[in-house]
Amino acid sequence: MEPLAERMRPQSLAEYVGQRHLIGEGAILRNMIDNGRLASIILWGPPGVGKTTLAKIISKQLNRPFYQLSAISSGVKEVREVIDKAKSGRFFNPESPILFIDEIHRFSKAQQDSLLAAVEEGVVTLVGATTENPSFEVISPLLSRCQVYVLKPLEHADLIALTQHVIQTDEILSKLNIQLTEEAALVRYSGGDARKLLNIIELVVNAQAEQSVVIIDDKHVIDNLQQSPAMYDKNGEMHYDIISAFIKSIRGSDPDAAVYWLARMIEGGEDPKFIARRLVISAAEDIGLANPNALLMANQAFDAVNKVGWPEGRIILSEAAIYLATSPKSNSAYNAINEALDFVKQTGNLPVPIHLRNAPTKLMEKLNYGRDYMYAHNYPGHFVVQQYLPDEIAHKRFYVSQENPAEQRSNELQRSRWGDYKK
């Protein structure tokens, strides 16, 4: 018997749950499907939100041939074979077939390059699925040929509606006396992931297989998840609850907890690049200028894991996690850029001071562009007080140092330079 998640996979847009911003009436992707004019697209979102299902529904609704590849198990050879099949099939069907590539972020540059001509010439309509930011993982030439659509975690109402639908219509569950009496734990542990939700329901129901009444409540959900902690830690999926605990343990300077959550991710099959990337982010956001070497360490760990891979990569990640957890903490850089971004949104495009402007033409020279600029290296200590911000905010402060030795030393140097100019 197929797992519940597979049995309940939607077969049409009417059965599809969530993503109303994309496939609701009048939404951009829905219009594209209804008009039969599908462009190559990349579906970006967390696991279990319907990327694969949506690709299959689109193919079925448009009545187009459907080819599916997994970036984990397919290479350039398999890509070229599918493209050749698509070319030969165009004689019988003028519409380009859909080539669905799951986890397209795992494709190498060479594999992605092999798709370019076929996508550009319309031999295939590419539908890629990724849990990673395509800006970082998909090569620019391929990305420029695709529309990127962001899929969101399922909302509370979507998850409950799906639960009720499953209980009432599944060929097995509909024959049981199932009572949903509490939903908080079910929704919380699903984390907006329909696959997790259905796996949890199946786990709870199977645990009560001999009972005349099957109860789904907070206690049964939590008890069964504790007995099967790796139930949904498979296939390298992103699990935001564990990565959140990992990052918060580093931020809270607890190396033991950081290593524990790291082990959970490794044991669950998490992508090492994802873990390493989050370490780089944490080094900048949580350690920052209190220990700038943390960012160097995290970046080196990212490079080293890419070179070494598993299983030795676990040692590199452990070293980086412990170093970050035991480092002094500062979020001053994080706060500074956030405040500056908010300020820019409020104030708009303030003009660049005349003395800071570039003067590549004679006209600009006549307009005094750059005339009064003071070249810092011509002054003692390679510093001179002059205005670098727009006139309207000449003395505005965004960066505020925090209480740690590294930033305090920097702060003293800044005070000696700027004096009363920046207070």
Task: Please describe what this structure looks like.
With 423 residues, the chain is of the alpha/beta class. It has 20 helices and 7 strands. The chain has helices at residues 4-7, 20-23, 28-35, 51-62, 76-89, 109-120, 134-137, 140-143, 156-169, 184-190, 194-207, 218-227, 240-251, 255-267, 272-287, 293-308, 313-326, 332-347, 362-366, 405-418; strands at residues 41-44, 66-70, 98-102, 125-130, 147-150, 178-180, 214-216. It has a 5-stranded parallel sheet, sandwiched between helices. The protein starts with a helix and ends in a 5-residue tail after the last helix. The relative contact order is 0.07.
Distance between the termini: 71 Å
Average pLDDT works out at 82
Helical segment tally? 20
Radius of gyration: 27 Å
Helix content class: 40-55%
Quick structural gist:
This protein has 423 residues and is of the alpha/beta class. The protein has helices at 4-7, 20-23, 28-35, 51-62, 76-89, 109-120, 134-137, 140-143, 156-169, 184-190, 194-207, 218-227, 240-251, 255-267, 272-287, 293-308, 313-326, 332-347, 362-366, 405-418; strands at 41-44, 66-70, 98-102, 125-130, 147-150, 178-180, 214-216.
